[in-house]
């Protein structure tokens, strides 16, 4: 049996076979043949004994008699294949019935062999069954490795994407009052918010990356307006408002779902629930949900952190101001979710603080003097 020797010589450890047969003579003969061929063999005289052995240690191949004292081998076959799918089964029986053979194969047997069987045929069938098992195990391992690699690469692409976005944003914030931690926090608040709302996981990740780009359009606003610490004139405010459209133009037409979401947020994050916002005066559910969420977390974060035109407010005071906007500025349903998430937002804010900027308190209080 050169083929079997070749097969076994490639294996570091000889495959383990369990011979299940209630006739001791037949059992011992099969065991002797397989052991001589180089397999490691165990024996079981009943289903109960076989199950105990299978629980005990991994079995690569089972030779299974059908007529057993406790139960029929066929009864237990599907259970064995479900529980130990990598165990190949050779049914070895004196029952010469086509229907039984078909049933055995349907239940997962690799082969249906009739007694009496010669040693050469039995060993050949054992080798073929084990080669079949090896292929399945290798294929599964290959698929799992491939899936893990794809997942790893997707993660790498996503984090490169994220880094690119944050670095580009850091370039724009050199001239803006918004800090790097503000834009990062808005992404994290939105991530939590949409998770609680039950958004699909990929969209939750998209908004985490898209939200920080909400004010990208401020890159097109002159310094004299952008960095003015006092109240803007109506003309200046009209210019300031265009940051929504400028940002949307910068982000529009992309195939990337992240940039598509960033586009709708940039365009609509200053719309108000009652229709008095800008640039389009959209109202209620006509405002994209992503922008309605961003509007809430953006105002919350702006109020509770230092800006060039106001001090950081205590959360209580910030909430008093925001509550006045419920149903006017903010979507009332989202506002109730927002309130329930405040402890989590507080935690996010504490973990994402730029000490140099966020803790700086100017002596001149000019709270909310400037339209946002
Ligand atoms: Fe804005
Ligand atoms: Fe903002």
Can you walk through the features of this model?
This protein has 2 domains: 2-144, 3-Layer(aba) Sandwich (Rossmann fold); 176-358, Hypothetical protein af1432 (Orthogonal Bundle). It has helices at 2-10, 24-37, 47-56, 73-83, 98-106, 119-172, 180-196, 201-210, 223-226, 234-241, 243-251, 257-268, 289-304, 315-324, 332-340, 342-351, 355-358; strands at residues 16-20, 40-44, 61-64, 88-93, 111-114. The model is unreliable at 355-372 (pLDDT under 50). The protein contains 17 helices and 5 strands. Helix content is 58%, strand content 6%. The protein is rod-shaped. The relative contact order is 0.07. A 5-stranded parallel β-sheet has the order 2-1-3-4-5, with helices on both faces. By secondary structure, the protein is an alpha/beta fold.
Described by the principal axes of the CA atoms, the overall outline is rod-shaped
CATH level-1 class of the largest domain: Mainly Alpha
Strand ordering within the main sheet:
2-1-3-4-5
Low-confidence stretches: 355-372
Count of DSSP strands: 5
Most strands sheet: 5 strands, parallel
Rg from Cα = 35 Å
Order of helices and strands: HEHEHEHEHEHHHHHHHHHHHH
Compute the number of helices. 17
Q: Write the CATH homologous superfamily of the largest domain.
A: Hypothetical protein af1432
CATH topological fold name of the largest domain? Hypothetical protein af1432
Protein traits:
372 residues; alpha/beta; Rossmann fold; Hypothetical protein af1432; 2 domains; five-stranded parallel sheet; 58% helix; rod-shaped; disordered C terminus; binds fe (ii) ion
């Amino acid at each position: 049996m050169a083929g079997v020797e070749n097969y076994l010589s490639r294996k570091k450890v000889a495959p383990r076979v369990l011979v299940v047969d209630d006739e001791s003579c037949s059992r011992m003969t099969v065991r002797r043949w397989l052991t001589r061929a180089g397999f490691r063999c165990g024996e079981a005289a009943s289903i109960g004994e076989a199950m105990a052995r299978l629980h005990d240690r991994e079995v690569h191949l089972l030779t299974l008699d059908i007529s057993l004292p406790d139960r029929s081998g066929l009864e237990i076959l599907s259970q064995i294949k479900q529980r130990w799918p990598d165990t190949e089964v050779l049914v070895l029986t004196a029952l010469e019935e086509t229907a039984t053979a078909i049933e055995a194969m349907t239940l997962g047997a690799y082969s249906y062999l009739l007694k009496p069987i010669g040693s050469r045929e039995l060993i050949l069938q054992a080798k073929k069954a084990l080669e079949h098992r090896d292929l399945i195990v290798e294929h599964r391992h290959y698929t799992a490795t491939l899936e893990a690699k794809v997942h790893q690469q997707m993660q790498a692409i996503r984090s490169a994407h994220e880094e690119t976005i944050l670095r580009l944003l850091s370039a724009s914030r050199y001239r803006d009052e918004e800090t790097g931690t503000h834009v990062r926090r808005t992404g994290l608040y939105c991530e939590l918010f949409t998770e609680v709302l039950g958004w699909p996981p990929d969209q939750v990740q998209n908004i985490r990356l898209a939200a920080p780009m909400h004010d990208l359009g401020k890159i097109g606003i002159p310094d004299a307006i952008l960095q003015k610490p006092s109240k803007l004139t109506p003309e200046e405010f009209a210019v300031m408002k265009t940051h929504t459209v400028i940002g949307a133009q910068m982000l529009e037409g992309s195939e990337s779902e992240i940039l598509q979401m960033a586009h709708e947020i940039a365009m609509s994050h200053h719309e108000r629930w009652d229709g008095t916002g800008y640039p389009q005066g959209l109202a209620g559910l006509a405002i994209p949900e992503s922008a309605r969420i961003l509007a809430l977390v953006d105002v919350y974060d702006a109020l509770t952190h230092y800006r060039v035109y106001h001090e950081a407010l205590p959360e209580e005071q910030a909430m008093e101001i925001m509550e006045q906007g419920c149903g006017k500025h903010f979507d009332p349903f989202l506002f109730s979710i927002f309130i329930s998430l405040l402890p989590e937002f507080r935690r996010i804010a504490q973990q994402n603080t730029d000490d140099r900027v966020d803790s700086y308190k100017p002596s001149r209080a000019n709270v909310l003097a400037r339209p946002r």
